[in-house]
Amino acid sequence: MSSEFGKKIKISIFGESHGEAIGVVINNLPSGEKIDLLKLDEFMKRRQGGNNPYSTPRKETDKIRFLSGIANGYTTGAPLCGIIENNNTRSGDYNRDLPRPGHADYTAYAKYGSFTDHRGGGHFSGRLTAPLCIAGGILKQIMERRGINVISHIYSIGKIFDTPFDMINPDINGVDTDFPVLNKDIKEKMQQEIINAKNEKDSVGGIIECAITGLKAGVGEPIFDGIENKIAGLVFGIGAVKGIEFGIGFDASQMRGSLVNDPFIIENGQIKTATNNHGGILGGISSGMPVIFRTAFKPTPSIGKLQKTVSLSKMQEADLEIIGRHDPCIVPRALPCIESAGLIAIADFIL
Amino acid sequence: MSSEFGKKIKISIFGESHGEAIGVVINNLPSGEKIDLLKLDEFMKRRQGGNNPYSTPRKETDKIRFLSGIANGYTTGAPLCGIIENNNTRSGDYNRDLPRPGHADYTAYAKYGSFTDHRGGGHFSGRLTAPLCIAGGILKQIMERRGINVISHIYSIGKIFDTPFDMINPDINGVDTDFPVLNKDIKEKMQQEIINAKNEKDSVGGIIECAITGLKAGVGEPIFDGIENKIAGLVFGIGAVKGIEFGIGFDASQMRGSLVNDPFIIENGQIKTATNNHGGILGGISSGMPVIFRTAFKPTPSIGKLQKTVSLSKMQEADLEIIGRHDPCIVPRALPCIESAGLIAIADFIL
Amino acid sequence: MSSEFGKKIKISIFGESHGEAIGVVINNLPSGEKIDLLKLDEFMKRRQGGNNPYSTPRKETDKIRFLSGIANGYTTGAPLCGIIENNNTRSGDYNRDLPRPGHADYTAYAKYGSFTDHRGGGHFSGRLTAPLCIAGGILKQIMERRGINVISHIYSIGKIFDTPFDMINPDINGVDTDFPVLNKDIKEKMQQEIINAKNEKDSVGGIIECAITGLKAGVGEPIFDGIENKIAGLVFGIGAVKGIEFGIGFDASQMRGSLVNDPFIIENGQIKTATNNHGGILGGISSGMPVIFRTAFKPTPSIGKLQKTVSLSKMQEADLEIIGRHDPCIVPRALPCIESAGLIAIADFIL
Amino acid sequence: MSSEFGKKIKISIFGESHGEAIGVVINNLPSGEKIDLLKLDEFMKRRQGGNNPYSTPRKETDKIRFLSGIANGYTTGAPLCGIIENNNTRSGDYNRDLPRPGHADYTAYAKYGSFTDHRGGGHFSGRLTAPLCIAGGILKQIMERRGINVISHIYSIGKIFDTPFDMINPDINGVDTDFPVLNKDIKEKMQQEIINAKNEKDSVGGIIECAITGLKAGVGEPIFDGIENKIAGLVFGIGAVKGIEFGIGFDASQMRGSLVNDPFIIENGQIKTATNNHGGILGGISSGMPVIFRTAFKPTPSIGKLQKTVSLSKMQEADLEIIGRHDPCIVPRALPCIESAGLIAIADFIL
Q1: Do C222 and B7 touch (CB under 8 A)?
Q2: Which terminus has fewer CB within 10 Å in chain A: N or C?
């Protein structure tokens, strides 16, 4: 089981949902980077539930304890380890014998046998995105200092869609941090859609759109180490992600080349493209235009409705009713996770 | 520039489109694997153009010369190196000063300066998928011996769509190798769509759907080393790919959890799922159901129509007319590339 | 700063000597391995000082707290994180301005600037061998279950030499765990040599000889991934190591091939070598004979004697008297560290 | 079988002694580096035999053919592949059934079975150091442009020792390229020692001392990615190496700390050490003093004398007389290989 990522900035994530602690080790951070712990905490809070009717009532405090790599508010250059001690867990909610449909319970069992720590999904829990956000939140501050911003908004909840980013000039200040959408009129409808799903003891999916601005042309590597490969490699580390597309993405497959190709232009003495269908990446390497990508999330598989599963011990079919406290929609809490993926990917190229 | 992939099976791709040769080094292949060179050649032929009205008239023979790692028809266990010597190139077709829209000409220039070998796209050329297919074609034989098949069909050309795979039981014999579609009635329409684009000096995109069968439950690793991460990391190494989705993919974002979750069932004493919306992967690990993924290709950026670009030397806007021999649609030739990505990903887990 | 090792078994070490905690993340341990915590504690104790006149009076308890990867006494298969919370540190002993000769104080300053956590040597402290021993102690139990033993003895202290291992049949029970030597008569002399150095406010070096038994022929990889490369890559991660040799090592450079070459023989129906000058490795791959290597340690650089150094702030030469509690000889405590290196190296090949 | 090395500069070596070709792929070379092919050829020639009475009469021309990564005499930034086509091989010299003592014939057989290409040692042949030298020779030019020089001399042949390098100021011009020794009086004695061994149908070992100058303080990483780890990891990729030591190396184990510790001093406004027992590395990181290391080579195992081995097919003991053309001493030809290891190690840190 290898939960590591990166070549320059190396991330190693550990922990099980209901174990002692979850955490992350980050190797190769530059020394002397100031880390504002309050800002980091704000970033982490966006991932936490419990503050509104449309997410889990399970309150995770996600207080980070740094074991190494930070001293006097600055990175030391040594490997940074940040952990979150676990609390407020109710292991009684989980049943080893009946794997939850849509979860990794069964596949973890197939791989690790009964030794896997299945409580709360163990190492496969969405809770493991918290250490990802520790890394992302730290890198956000380091990247911003270098003029690079990574922002995201809720592109869709179910069939309700927000306005897409302006691909030439995404408004990095146009999104708030609570329930970020570009079209403010759509916000309430999306929230209602989540509440509807919740009331039906069901869940609903959605799409997050993310933009990376401030990246100069020439960042990235060809073939297997392109920006797309790296972002995709991180994003599929976030549970419930089923797809990713860059620039105009799947729509490009239905279009003619003369419409998809972005003409080069000169703007203020710099080479730009007139449109940004390519999403800021050509041949794996940044073009200087904003990097744009969208990530599809399936509905969170933990739902209250009665479901069909099997008993692993009896090898016969069985009913399952999940009683615990679960999100009807993971999308609002996943925004900082997606941004973290973008931040880690870019940091792995330029730090 | 790092054109390497893999942890167990390591692939290192080298070469420039119009250089001496292109090739691949594969590390960690098991010894004693019989390699049928005729079958490998058939696999390579599927990637080559020139045989029909809907692909490039440029004939690439792609004859593989093995420098190491194979003796007497069997792998020796030592690093395998296969190369394709270049010939039939017309470098006069390419202009360094005017980067082609939608190509990596400009980003390669931004990264490597004027030293990059720009002829024919250099290391960024679609031609570099040939070494990928050498690796894929070799692993196809090794994987089939282990009961694992990777097949693909043309899911769409422009707005014309084939029938999707049966996600529970994809018909691995239902697709031919020339222009594989499941719905034979759609074949001619798709080909006509490509010819139309060609006649307009334009190009058209499409989607490839790929299935991996025969994979037992429990293959893959969590978080960053899941099957999705690995396949995505390879697939974005193929030029013109703009998106990837697994199982029902982006559609899941519009659905309720009660419909997306695949109930577990018992079938012939084995645990299966009644549906396969998850596309054979849960938590990065195989469930024993077929792995299904779709990859979106943009229209090939080399088109005959007049386009706008900039002169790098004069830093002013300029017109560009590409005269060379180019594919109006890359999708039919990309099928073995996508299968190779699937084969390499799986081999990296199980060899 | 990258403190990671391994391809299959991945070790990531973090922590600073006087920081919150030091620890290790181990990826890819098999699930279901029983870990006897008392045995692990015994292994850790061998690395700790404070119990005798010839090591540091600084008492490190090195109590391991497992944050993940172990449940109910068995590995879960998820990344294992074990930490040691710091205590009993006296940071006042350390002076940032005067780098200690023979230590990494100055090179860390050159690399990380004043942000490095210099207290107690920070991430460069010998204390960071404790997490190495957590990994080694866990793998020792897993390896022994597979018939592989890694043992070591003190080969020399200063100019006083023990009997070398029988290279064909090293006596794995002939060494005790406290101050292991093969020639019991030499033990007291060695200890006296250490006490002499201590009384002179000085320190003394030595050599550790290590044997790995039970390894079948055919383990290891050629060229850069051989057993020697891997063991050396780990051993130089232990502070104060200045050299390593395998089999007869440097002596081979003075001999004729006819004497160095080990003739193959048949013994009990198995291929062996009559002698083991090659130290169990040919071409990076195990021959089935015991792997034997020796590691040279310089005298610990922390000594009480007055030394010459420079003031980093004034850029002028200065006197330094180190007051703290330090080992006059690191060798006796380094034995489990060397064994850990051997264990991790082998585990990285066969797990 | 993984014959790869490096994190930034990645080297992948392939080929079998008597196969089609041997070669190397180098990833991540900077673009725009001028490569003087005549100088590269001179570097390669130092590794070749056939020019004098003390090395093999087998003439290897080692003419490099570049398949990619170089255009118009400059690196393009794309992966560089250089190969040497094989010729002048006499496979009849080699016998699969009787593994040669001291060679990897038996261990390769144990690992890969009869599929391994055993001719001439296959992938384990000393011939595979030629691709290593391609990488080293290219990096030598790139490093020299950055003020870094890597030089070596023959420190010993058998029991005949040269003067060691001045560790503070090694004379990088004091060594010639043919049979480099510092003490010219010893040259003939060493050559005679080799001829003596040859006349006895035997072989003799030796030690190479290597110095790296021009490295600023602060290069390298702690724990597992130090300069020692990296150099050792490469050096043990060269056949016949049995040991390595840095600075005063094994001698440090017999000394007191007060003598080993190198006092810091100020010289011309820069921090230096008065002595260089540490060999330019503290805590894995360069101190700004020359990096010094010595590598012990066993006598080449191919000797004409009658030896004892076993028949793999009959599993009984047998006599072996090796008839082929072999070096009585590998040390003179190994100098550029050792320098290549030093060059690749340093390049992997600073490019």
Answers
A1: no
A2: C
